[in-house]
Amino acid sequence: MKDEIHPDNLDSSEQPRNILDRAIFKFGNLISLLFVFTVAISFYEVLMRYVFNAPTIWVHETASFLGGCLFVYGGIYALSINKHVRVVLIYDIVSDRTRRWLNVFHHVMGLLFSGLLSWAAYQMVQDSWFTPFGDVRLETSGSAWNPAFPALVKGMIFMTLCIMFVQFSLHLIQELNGLRKRKDV
User: Fold this and answer.
1) In terms of Cα–Cα distance, which of 109, 120, 116 is closest to 169?
2) Which of 80, 99, 143, 146 is 20 to 30 A (C-alpha) from 20?
3) DSSP string across 89-117
């Protein structure tokens, strides 16, 4: 039973496919430790608020910022190890050749998706990082602590979408090369 849940051999389709995917995978494993830090500071806030009646002004925004950035990064992480969402009901019953063509379609749609979202994210970053006159002034939260986390999260979204666009491009090239090398295509 244990072998079915945790097989010894890893599925090669769920491994990083190129140097960018490997870097995203390794960095993602490293920064996932920030979830532990987020839990620790949240526990600190609960302790300070309910035991010592001395709430903090920084924990909630910091935890939200870290969690948001980590979840945004999760998109490129999932794509790097081929764990993104797909309709397996169809994908699992078709031939290998059809799967490759479905992958090509997926990567083309992913390019379109990430490209358009990158443009929208760029607009958000421009509005949150610059004044109408072009001076740099990061958007802040407006709270008592007032960190620049909203602008930084928008920058993270933009950066991640740009990386995702490159990932989809590389995956599409790899998929097309795989189709080209097959004799039956």
Assistant:
1) 109
2) 99
3) HHHTTS-HHHHHHHHHHHHHHHHHHHHHH
